[in-house]
Each structure stands twice: as C-alpha cells, then as structure tokens.
Write a structure and sequence with these properties.
Chain A: Its EC number is 6.3.5.7. Chain B is α+β, with helices and mostly antiparallel strands. Helix content of chain B is 31%, strand content 9%. The chains are: A alpha/beta, B alpha+beta, C alpha+beta.
Amino acid sequence: MSVDLTRMTAAELAAKIHSREVSAVEVAQAHLDRIAAVDGEVHAFLHVAAEAALASAAMVDEGLAAGTAPASPLAGVPLALKDVFTTIDMPTTAGSKILEGWRPPYDATVAARLRAAGITILGKTNMDEFAMGSSTEHSAFGPTHNPWDLGRVPGGSGGGSAAALAAFEAPLAIGTDTGGSIRQPAAFTGTVGAKPTYGGVSRYGLIACASSLDQGGPCARTVLDTALLHEVIAGYDPMDSTSIDQPVPPVVEAARRGADGDLSGLRVGVVREMSGEGYQPGVRTCYEEALRQLEKLGAELVEVSCPHFEYGLAAYYLILPSEVSSNLARFDAMRYGLRVDQGASAEEVMAATREAGFGPEVKRRIILGTYALSSGYWDAYYGQAQKVRTLISRDFAAAFEQADVLVSPTTPTTAFPLGDKVDDPLAMYLNDLATIPTNLAGTAAMSVPSGLADGLPVGLQIMAPALGEAVMYRVAAAYEAARTAEDGPLLDRVPTLEVSS
Amino acid sequence: MSAEPAAAHISREEVAHLARLSRLAVTDAELDVFAGQLEVILGAVARVGEVAADDIPPTSHAVPLQNVFRPDELRPGLTQEQALACAPAAEDGRFRVPQILGEEA
Amino acid sequence: MSAPTLVDFAEVVERFDPVLGLEVHVELNTQTKMFCGCPTTFGAEPNTQVCPVCLGLPGALPVVNRAAVESAIRIGLALNCTIAPWGRFARKNYFYPDMPKNFQTSQYDEPIATGGYLDVPLDDGSVFRVEIERAHMEEDTGKSLHVGGATGRIHGAEYSLLDYNRAGVPLIEIVTKPIVGTGERAPEVARAYVTALRDLLRALGVSDVRMDQGSLRCDANVSLMPKGATEFGTRSETKNVNSLRSVERAVRYEMTRQAGVLLAGGRVVQETRHFDESTGTTSPGRTKETAEDYRYFPEPDLVPIAPSAEWVEELRGTLPELPWERRRRIQQDWGLTDLELRDLVNAGALELIEATVAAGAPAGEARSWWVSYLTQQANARGVELADLPITPAQVARVIALVASGELSNKLARQVVDGVLAGEGEPDEVVAARGLAVVSDDTALLAAVDEALAAQPDIAEKIRGGKVQAAGAIVGAVMKATKGQADAKRVRELVIERVTA
C-alpha cells in the first residue's frame, strides 16, 4: 500500500473519504488491521467491534455514493471510545469486573452524537477502574502499555484512548477527565487531549466517577483533529442537568486561525506555583522552551499567582472519594452486573459482590469517601474541601483578569515504569497536581505535545476560563505549529511497534 | 471555629466499620493495608484545614447553573424485558434478590 | 416477647402529656416521575414504568420535573410556609434493595418550604392549629414483595422480588413541629390533621391522596412526658398507618403502651414500630445495630432550585379555596344544617355534589342523586362514592334530561345504571337502550286509540263523565310503550280523544 491510512490525521482522512478517494470501509479496515497487529502488546482496547465498525463505515460510504453530504466533517473517520460511556451495541465495563459483560440498554449522549456524526466507533478502550487512577494499571482487565516504551504506563485513567492514538490504532478517541484523565495520558503519549468546560459535553451515559468533576472530552494527534471532534460531541443536552445551554465555542475556526502562528496581543499567564520544585528537570526544560516559543509567536507572558492551587490535590482527594462512595453504591448485585452468591441475605451478597468486583484503588476511595462524609468529620474534610474549591475558583478568576490563558506543564514527570507507583497511592496522586485545579473550578484545559525529555513525551497544559475553549485551541494550534516547524511532529519519533502477523 | 481536623489516626476497627457501611466484605489482610494507607492519605488531605476559610462559601457545583427543569411529559422508557435483561435473577417480571435483613421500608 | 402492659387511656392522660410529631408522605399525581419521564400510574405490570434513570443504571442522570416543583411550592403556600429562595437536593446514602442508586435524592437541610401551619377542624367544630416544620421534595422507592414468609412481611421471607415502577415517583414529605397540648384529644388531633391535610391536598389537585394505595402515608411519632414536665420523652415512630382511622388508633395504642412501660419504671425505646390494622397494635421493627449516618452531601447531578418571587406569586394565584372555607360557603348557599353538612362530608359526597352543581344541576337534585341512589350503588359495589364510574358532569346531564321531560325519574335511574355499566355517556345510553320518554303525539295517539278500542266500556265511562276511569287507559298505554310515555300527556290525550 502506498499510503498508510493509519498515519493520517482525522482531517486528512475525512477529506479523502468525503472526496471518495478512499472508502470509509477501507479506512476502518486499515485501523482494525492495525489493532489486530499491535494491540496484543499495547492493550489499548477492551473490546473491538469490528463488524459494527465496518457496517457503520459502509453506511457512510453508501450515503456519499448516493450524493448525500457527509453527516459531519468527521463522517467515516474511526474513533476509540473510552469504556466508560454506555453503548447499546457493545459491552460497557468502566474497567471493572463488577460490570464485566454488562450490555447497557441505552447509548450515552456522546455515543449517540458520534454515531449521528457518522464516526466509526472501532471499540472501547481500557481505563483505570471507574476512572480512578493515573496509569491504567487499575483496570480489572490488565494494564495498557505506553507505545513510546512498552515498559511504561500510558497515564490514566484514559490510558487506553491515548495509547490507541499513539499506536496509530485510531486517529480519534474520547476520554473523560475528572482530575487529569484526558490531559495526563495525552502528555505521557505525545498526543493532544482537551477537558472542556464542565457542562460543555453531556455526561448522560458517562459512568460517574465524581459527578461534580467528570467531563468527557476529545483526544487526537493534532489540535485541529481534537477541535473537530470537540464540536461533534459538545453542546447542550436536556438529559444532563449540568449541561450548559449555550452555543459551543467555535474551536475549529480557532484552531485554524491559531495555525497561522500569530499570537500577538494575547496574554499568556505563567502560573508561578506550577513549575519548579516537584517537576522533573526534563519537564521543566520543555516548559521553558514552550514559553520561549509562545513569546516568539507574539504572546505576552505574564506571571500570575494562584496561591491556593497547592491545596487542590488535598481538596480533590476528599471531594472525589466522597462522590465516588455514593456514585458506586449502585453496584450492589441486585439489578445488573456481577452477583457473588455468598451469604443468605441481600446485605451479605452485596458486600461479597462489591468485595470481589471492585479493585483495591476503588475500595480505598470508597472507604476514604465514606469517612470524609461521616457526620463527625464532614466539616473538617468534605466541608472544608468545598471551601478550598471556592478559593481555587477565585484564584483562576483573578488570574484570568491578567491573562487570556494560563500555562503549565501538564504533569510533573514523564511516563513512569509499570508497577512503579501502583502500591503507593499518594505518589500516584501527585501525577494530577497540575491538572486538578481546572476540574475543581470547572474551567477548560488541554494538553499539547511539548517535546521529549529523556526520549519520553512531555505535555504543555493550556488553561482557559469557562467556555473559553476558542482561545485555548488557538494558542494550542499556534504552539503546535511552531513546535512542529522547529522539531517535527513528536509522534514521528514514536518507536515502531513489533507488528504481529 | 477552626476546621483543622484532629491528628488523622485511623484504626483498623474504624476501617472495618467504614467497610461495613460501604458494603465491602474486606479481608483481614486488606484491613491492615487500608488502615495504613488511609492514614497516610488522610494525613496529606488534612491540609485543606490549613486554609482559613471561615467566611468562604463552599462550592458544590463548579458552574453556577440553577432552575434546570424538565417538562412533565412522558418519555419512552425500557420494556420489562430490557429492564430485566441484565438482572442476576428475575421472577414474575421482578428482580429477585436474597432475603432482606434490614428495616422494613 | 411478652405482651405489653397497656394502661387505661383515662389514666394515661391524667398522668402524662402526649407529644405528637406527624410525618406525611404524599405521592404527587404528576404525569411523570421526579427525575425522569416514566409514568407514575398506579397498578401497572411490574417494571414496565422504568428507564435507565429510575433503575439507577450506570451513567444515567436525573432532571427535575418542573410540575413537581410547582406542586411542592403550592403545597408549601397552602400550608402558610415560606418558600425557600434557593435550595439544593442532597443525597441520603444508605443501602437498600428497593432504592436503585442506594441513595435517595431528597432535599435535606434546604427544604423548599418551611415554617407554616394548618388549622385543623376538630369533631366538635373547634379548630386546632398544627405548626408545620417543613415540606420537602424527594423520590419514592420501589416495592418489594417478600416471598416465602407466612405473612408476606419481611421477617421470615426466603427472598424478595422487586418492582421499580414506584421508584422515583415524586414525594413531598410534610413534617409537623412537635404537637403539644392535645391531652386526651391527641388521637383525634392526629386523625383530624391527616384528614385536613388530605382534603387540602385534594383541593390543590396535587395528589390522589389514596391512603389505601399508598399515595398518602403517615408516620406517627408519639412520646409521653409526665404532667408538668418540660422535656419531651423518648418517642417511637409508627409506620404502616394506612387509613385515617388507623392514625387515631395507632396514636391511642402507643400512648397506652408507652404509659405501661413508664409506669412500670421502664424506659421507652427510640425505635420504629409497625402498625397492625387487624389487631390495632404496634410491634417493634428490627432494631438497628448502629445509629444511621446517612452521609448527606449536595447532589452534584442536579443544580439548585431558586424559585423567583414572580413564580411563587403566580403559583399563589392558582391556590384554590381552602376546603373548610368552601364548606362554610356551601353550607350557607345550600342552607344545610351542621349535621347535614357533616353527613355529606363523611360520605365523601360534598365535592361530587359541588361539581355536579358546577356542571349546571340544581343543588337539591344533585344532592338527592348522590346521597340516595348513587350512595346505594356505591354500597352495593363496596366502593367509595368517588370511585363510582360516573362523573359529576354525567349526573348533571341526567338531571337536565329529567328536567326537560326527556326522561322520567324511573328512566333516569336506568340511564345512570347504563353509565355505571360502562355503556358510555348518558345520551348514548338513552339512544342505545331506547329510553327516551315518548312525547310525540302521533305515536302516543295510535297507542291511545288502540287502548280505547280494546276497552270500549271504559271509554264509555269517561264519556259519561267518570274522568278518573281514564287511569286504566293511561296504564294500558304506559304498558304498551314500556313506560317511556309521558303519563301526563297520555292522560290529556285520552280525555281529548273521548270527548272530541
């Protein structure tokens, strides 16, 4: 084959499919072949829906052959869906044994929008159980490996979606971001991932981790592809009470404009508290280089201070487990999912099932959340964490008075070896240091590739105010263009995976 | 009032109580591990108490929406077959569950 | 367990002051559930009124039913409460198989209505003011069927079967402040309060208020304190009180039981008790191992409710006349004695008569139909008057047909029978059964002539001046027309024919 369809961007594939230069079925098949070849090693997917994917692609081809306009700018392009969104035609597990084999009777709004847009869903991707984790090692179905170094983690919880992109198994993916689960894996795999404003993308059908923090979002290998996907999945949904009933920010236009490479007049806030100590030297080097490039693009760098961000991690690890302890109560063996028939009473069966069906990280957080919400501790823990949340929002508000976007490294370190932190919860939690404040405030942020440190990808985090996605994508696209012009696309340097025949 | 929590010590018995409340039949080995880990985690998250926040309103919802309602109109739901399709056990159109020991609701 | 020692009620009230607290749960009669678009109809096949939201499926999210909020606000206003300008739902966390999410979404410390009162009419015509602590919104649970036990109750059952049709039906919980100073009237006050509340809710049109179907449920908290004491005693909470009469009986029983415990030097246990309709007694539920800690926190999946002053005032404008005010007005309008009014109220006929009058019938006729013939029919069927399958509008139509002479009283009863038998509207029954009074002279004259020809001797008598003999001819005509002739007109025709 002269061109490798799996190496193309989603925008390129869409152009070829819509001009009928290649068929959507060919594109889907090329990606299914790639999955068959490399996923044994990467383990990005929990479920591959080859038949459904080809059938969906064939429908796109039929429509185009009949002269119908494509359903969306991404019609016919394949996508990997994080296994935390319900799908009527595929099992949905959220990475947990307690949901093994569950076939939801309904589609998540995100899944329904992808289908309506003619996007080919290749399958469901691996994740930390119920999106709790930063390495995908907490999946009940085994870890995902980072295509940059199979001995390392791809980040988490959306490690499967990020790895699928970096391994060229899919040009598009969907993730969810509760404390960094889109951005941290993007940083670890040299891909792009955006966490939209809370309420920007419907959570209906997104199996909840922490309801007040969860947000679905787009992942891809380029900023433009991410923006194209963003516009497909975002927008008001009456089924989600927290959905924002306002127009979706014009992120595609912003990404195209940003690619022109001019950021003059734009103020980029450099958060004083988000670099330096605790950040790996290679990460800091990449960050300083990114700041230099932003300045070169015409942006004005302003130092801003967000003094309460340092309490973000503590507040997050109280609010999240509290909501988790309640959200995961429904997995009780009564109506669906696993049932362990140990004990005579419903109470005993519930406890035995939850013990067998949940992994250690999930249990840890349920117990922690139950503690934080207990009457004697409520004020000191949950109540106080909610006040910290207010202070962090105020920090953001003050910073956005001075700057249009804020930047920081996405993560303190690059991808770490599998097994390194799995038994040290606190060390694992530190991964989310820079990403958590955005979730607590409900604002938008994304990660774009920002070079390599010791051969491993580093991410630049760009943060924007609520519904400020347009300026965020503009800066991301400008930075991406400038960095690529100097250094070439990062993913050109991802090691070639052994292809099994 | 200072919100500073008392030194975070969490006993094995306390973890066992929390596990019971959360319907987790944890093993003895897990109790030991969790008690140790939770103490470390609580020690770290207790930092939220360092912030003087007596006059700070709490945030429960990041985006300040209010009055989001649905009209009182029927929407198609699931059939009985769909509802019971994933049930671990069913009988006579109902979900079958082991005997309930708790309080009669 | 030994049977409790009961103390004579007169002695109870001589030595103790009862304190009541009543918690009433009302199922709203909205089309759909509190947080999803499933129907709320009572009695459907199990698990046919469910969706991902009310089954608590992973990923499903709640959205508040606007009509339920409006009902809650109207109830709050009718109870003279303050409507909270801002409030959130909370999650009440506890595991129970009839609750699909294992938390109940409920307004916890931010109820939509607080601090009101209800003026309750007592049997002797006096009024007792019950202070309302709060009214808040929440969702109902599913229903369990306990299989294998002797009694159908939970104890001793082998397993349970769950139906989630009821899960998520909107509930309003109305909680009183402690009701003190009732003395010997405590049981009556409890019953009268629930009765007044039921009438109020019915007038508001927000609920079916059927205690037998569980759309109105009452939990009665009762405690005793020695005469002269200022500190409340330990209370029990009695559940499963499914009729107005049971409210009264349950309170009375608890007073006599607790007095027995206290006078024997014992202590009342704070517990949930179960009322048994058949024996009129209460029995303890299973005691909980540890005090419940529901770990409430604001529901992140729902946003706050902040009713604007305009909205609240608009809803205030929709409040109906209060039931007791309306009764006073009706009593005057219809010229009823107190006794007559009470009989009508007790028979559940007042609203029906009023609606019949509203549909155009004279008050006397409307009253007569409902308290005599229709009451007989209801008794024969063993149902409440209101549950007869006939509407006030249909009764009004029958009355109108009699007034216009199209139906005789006898025929009118047959029309009502037809409506009750499901044969349709009164006019349809008249047509289908051919019941209209025959007042067409041509048809009648033929019958009159035929009867006169058959009995020439009687015709002769009439002609001879014995006008009363005409009765025999009229009777024959009525027989021939199967009673559908207008007897008065037949008589006129007979005289006319003979004397012509």
